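User: New here, any thoughts?
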Amino acid sequence: MESTPILYQDVVDGILAIAELTKAPTNKSTCYICSREYGSMGSGIEINLDLLSQLPGAFRKTFIEHTVEPVRTSCGHMFCIFCLGVWFKNESACTCPMCRHPLHLPYNLERENTDDGRPEVGIEGLSISLNVSTPLAAELYRIVRMETRELLLTSEEMPFKWNAEAMLHDLPVIMVSIARRFYYQSLKLQGSVPKDLFFMRRHSAVRHFIEWDNSHNLKFFERTDAPLAGHEHAFALYKILCERIKDLEAVMGDDVGRCSNWEGPARTLMYKVVHEYMPEADGGVGGARWRAYISCVIKVLFVWQAYCERAHMLIRSAQWPTLDDW
């Protein structure tokens, strides 16, 4: 273990995609492989980040928190995240250390790489590719990299464009991402909720055209650590929201579908879903928690469209500064 003192964020994300973060049983509080107590950091994880950043090759974000938390594989065996990550040995496939059941990390899934992990490289890349100034590229980079948590905390007024294909593309990802947050919060584990998984990405904020694949629906993204999204009421919610998104596109906003602010339509849709379309639903988690889930899903869906609209407006203002905003 001492020979591999770090894990990278993409490896941890891959592990969390195939193994369920769980609680250690009272009769087994240590990892089967390293014998460290679950929840501890362990001396082998200390690293020199300054030295690491000077190494040649692509820079990958290091993951040094909560790596001794227990996870349960699909075959039912429990290890700490750190040991399971080391067990893969930088490969996308291995077998369970106990029963030899095949384990595969989802590295074959498409990942949108706009940089090598360092903000300055990503900002420079956006500046060159979009032909915009460095300060504007920095703002675009901030939008592109936004996590679900940041969208949930947004309260400012922002216009957004009712883009049905983009919203339909994002909806199942958002529903599962929110359900995943609810799940980890319910565990009440020490530390914060894990970040969004790299392969579950909303549509790009700087891309104008979205190709929505209706096979990538809620069922496609079903996960054991997002049980709320797998409930029958969640599937009913998904169907209702898809229908409303398509039906309302022609009547929402101005002549190009731009709404003055995201909050009004979000509140209206939330009210109709809760009180008109699904008045008896509770998602199996109780009425209050179910309503909170719906509110979070709709807010993130609309707020992300608002940030995307802001990104498009910034790009247009830089590339065509003499044109009126349209």
Summary: Residues 1-5, 42-60, 107-116, 322-326 have pLDDT under 50 and may be disordered. Residues 304 and 317 are 20 Å apart (CA to CA). Strands lie at 7-8, 20-21, 62-63, 70-72, 78-80, 93-95, 102-104, 160-161, 258-259.
